[in-house]
Design goal:
Elements lengths: L3 H21 L3 H26 L3 H31 L13
Helix pairs in contact: 1-2, 2-3
Amino acid sequence: MVPLYWYLWLGSVVFAIGVFGFLARRNIIIMFLSIELMLNGVNISLVALSHYMQDLRGQILVFFVIAVAAAEAAIGLAIIIAMFRNKATLHADEIAEMKG
């Protein structure tokens, strides 16, 4: 049987890769993928802890996280496509429309 800390380690590594990708890259698509990695890192930890504690609430929470991630991807990609059609760039630094 695989120990719990291996899953927690895997979840934290996936989350850290997502954080690094989000902070280091300026391409909006890569930033989007990094957010998905962070959400999946949290999902791995939630499922592992849920299984370890013999409680289904963590796995139910994972379904909500997946639903939020799917909605975020659908809406976000639509916004990115609309912005790309207007600006013809995907770099976050060159898009200043959202600044206050």
